[in-house]
Amino acid sequence: MPDYQLIRSKRKTLSLQINYDAQLIVRSPLRLSIKKIESFISEKQNWISKKQAQIASKTTKKSSYEANDEYLFLGKSYPLKHTKTGNPLSFDGKHFALNTKYLGVKAFHWFYQKEFIKTAMPLLEKFGKKHNLAYQKVRFKAQKTRWGSCSASNNISLNYLLMMAPLTVIEMVIAHELAHIQHKNHSKDFYSLLKKMLPEYQQADIWLKANSQKLHSL
Ligand SMILES: [Zn+2]
Questions:
Q1: 150 alpha carbon – ligand 1 mean position (Å)
Q2: Which residue, 37, 93, 164, 183, is most buried by CB atoms nearer than 10 A?
Q3: CATH number for 191
Q4: What is the pLDDT of residues 96-151, one digit of tens each?
Q5: Number of compact structural domains in the chain
Q6: How far is the CA of 146 from the centre of ligand 1 (A)?
Q7: What is the dihedral of CA 131, 132, 138, 142, to 10 degrees?
Q8: Do 117 and 211 lie in a common domain?
Q9: How confident is the model over 179-195, as pLDDT tens digits?
Q10: Domain containing 144: what range?
Q11: Would residue 128 count as lying in a domain?
């Protein structure tokens, strides 16, 4: 099930819309059940993915990896230096250093993935244990339209480009996908579990929606 924003109003039919930020907006009659809404979304999955990919590819600005360009790490931006030795990319807390033997885009993907795995694994462990939510496998990949997913068999996938976002945003996405182990929908029960896991999840969600284009600019 893709993530979506549900807007209920006095209308007779369901409608789906993909906004400028590749988010799915669902407009529904006041009393239609979540089950019916989500089965409608499932039927339209191909259309949704296609539209989201189109929008994501249009809005993504490609980076040039010049010295002094700024890149994000845990929600803050830092300037880039060029170097001729060492790892493809390193970070000393003040600067990124790109070894110019490597392609900038590859070096950043390598770095964000490595750092994200280090950050995410303990969080999966912590939230999972505390709330008794056991996942099967976890995968880390960069995706244009999703921050995470949880399959029917509880395999979790997380977008390592989240390494650019503040820690609470990373926690929010991890808590969200773990909560899907218990609730395979975005019902009230799902959100009350998420709130129990991470009371500040709404602020994190707002940050992510406002900044998601930046996180796709590599
Ligand atoms: Zn979800």
A1: 8
A2: 164
A3: 3.30.2010.10
A4: 999 999 999 999 999 999 999 999 999 999 999 999 999 999 999 998 778 999 99
A5: 2
A6: 10
A7: -20
A8: yes
A9: 999 999 999 999 999 99
A10: 111-216
A11: yes
